[in-house]
Amino acid sequence: MNLPLLGADDIEALGPTGAVDALEAALSGGLDPETAPARHHVTVPGGELLIMPATTRQVTGVKIAGVAPDNPARGLPRITGSYLLLDAATLLPLALLDGAALTTLRTPAVSALAIRHLTGPVVRHLVLFGTGPQAYGHLDAVLAERRVERVTVVGRNPHRAEALAEHARRLGVDARAGQGHGAGEVATADLVLCCTTSATPLFDGSLVPDGATVVAVGSHTPDAREVDTALVSRSAVIVESRSAALSEAGDLLIPLAEGAFGAEGIVANLAELVTGRNIEGKPADFEGPRFFKSVGMGWEDLAVAAAVHRNSTP
Hints:
The protein has helices spanning 8-28, 99-118, 133-145, 158-170, 229-233, 242-248, 250-258, 270-275, 298-312; strands at 5-6, 40-44, 47-55, 59-67, 79-87, 93-98, 122-123, 126-129, 147-148, 150-154, 174-177, 191-194, 213-216, 236-239, 266-269, 290-293.
């Protein structure tokens, strides 16, 4: 059997909008994130191995991803891996995909789907924390969904922050690198994206304006978070699934342990946000900021991998 190998070019050809549409179609078609298989974590010498299975009536798949914290110092990617896509009925392999490239497209697409339903058509000021592949991917995904008037890039390395700002300017956006830690920039933001490896909060959540949207994607462990308790306690919280968030998301679990946040503060999962089911009011009616926390789930990889396969099949 000649198994098609779908690399970064094939995955990028789907594009951010194609990936967002694939995720939305899966949820609109009845996929329930709460019943999706859990991610399995295995500690290995190089870091962490993540095994992420998922299935629908049409396709089944599994991603094996490596998280290697020391790789960037070696000039290697922090995220590695492969994705095996199977026919659901026969379990015969359909394709093998580049897992790192799939993650680079999928994660911003999940954020962009939430942004599609949480923000208006114009983002006046986007504050972007992070300068790695996910930061670039998130910028591209947001620009595919919204008209962005101004971007401030905040990163630990000022040269990398300026490089991302220059990339944004080449895309036609007024952009600059933030000064210092840039935490005060959030006071004028209507969209904040957190795409870092930080284990501690990036900014003072009390500064985020009511009505702004904050998205955090950088952590998936109970002891790490990119946003503080102040933000979580005053926000309408949206998650991919309650079960995944309340087992993996330190951004929520730490405030929960502090008694400053309760599970009832989660106003919707992503399926409820997309379909409007089991959700009181519209996102525009939410008081305070809107906070979307993503930990990454296997069904998202499956939806995007299947779309890549369809897009690449003559």
